Amino acid sequence: MNFLDRHNISPVMFAFISLVILFTTYQIIGGALAYLFFQGQINDQTVNGIRWLTVFSQIIFLLAPTILLTKLVSSDIRAYLRFKSTSLIQIILAMFGMFALGQMLQVYLTVQEMIPLPENIQPFVESIKKSIEQLYKQVAGASNIQELFFVLFVIAIVPAFAEEFLFRGLVQRSLERGLTPLKGVIFTGIIFGAFHLNPFTFVPLAIIGIYLGFLVLKSGSLMVPIAAHFFNNAIAVFAIYLKYDDDALITGKPSAMSPEILLLSFVFFLLVFFIIMYYFIRASNLLTKIKSEV
């Protein structure tokens, strides 16, 4: 019997307790360390320190506790987290799907920006949004190739592993066991969006979280959402490095498009997304069939 069975703890309760623990370690303790060392200041002299602290926090306050908590549920951590090899075609299709989804979400964010706010709070909201954007661009920005690879490590590689081990690994797996696979995917996605503490991107992050949850559920491998997560973050890093507008679509700049063109762009990428998902599901079903026959 594992720890949960011995103490009669439900998988859903365990997922909730794990999230509270990791929110405390990562967001509160990690945030306190950032303020202690840098007093909220970010500039050319502190940016590398903040990057290293981000890596430290992701590994020590997210990844390591996730692995330790998983030990309480199963003696086979890799099997419980579904951390196993997968096919290249699944990874490629998952990445293309993430790209198409990202384009749709940029259209959503453009429409969200069009929603008028009360005049008395609009300056405050705009100030917060601008601060968040500037902070991200400073941390994720790079001035040369060497720095670009370091930023990719900080922004794309480490978070892809740490966050996927936690959310699509420990949390979703636990919620799937305590609820249903579908509810596990949806609730984990919503939690993923909320965990980032950015109200302006909550909806897109929740949708991305649900997509990543679907990938691991259908493929049976955590490596698929890890690859898609890395790809999504890497695109943002390269966009900043190439001085490309981070809200731009491959069809143009959303803020300069008419509502009709925005709608057409959304529908186009939606169709692309569904086509990619069709082939992803086919590939996953075929691989499952092959494995069952071996």
Question: Explain this structure to me?
Answer:
The structure is a single chain. With 294 residues, the protein is mostly helical. It has one domain. The chain is built from eleven helices and no strands. The longest helix is centred in the last third of the chain and has 35 residues. The radius of gyration is 20 Å and the shape is globular.
Radius of gyration: 20 Å
- Domain module tally: 1
| Average residue-wise pLDDT | 91
Number of helices: 11
How far do the termini sit from each other? 31 Å
Strand fraction equals under 5%
Query: How many extended strands?
Result: 0
Low-confidence stretches: none
Morphology call: globular
Helix and strand run: HHHHHHHHHHH
- Sheet of most strands: none
Helical content stands at over 70%
- What structural category characterises the helix and strand content? mainly alpha
Summarize the entry for a quick read:
By secondary structure, this protein is mostly helical.
Task: Give keywords.
294 residues, mainly alpha
How are the SSEs ordered, and which strands pair?
Blueprint: H1 3-6, H2 11-38, H3 47-71, H4 77-81, H5 88-114, H6 122-140, H7 145-178, H8 181-195, H9 202-219, H10 223-241, H11 259-293
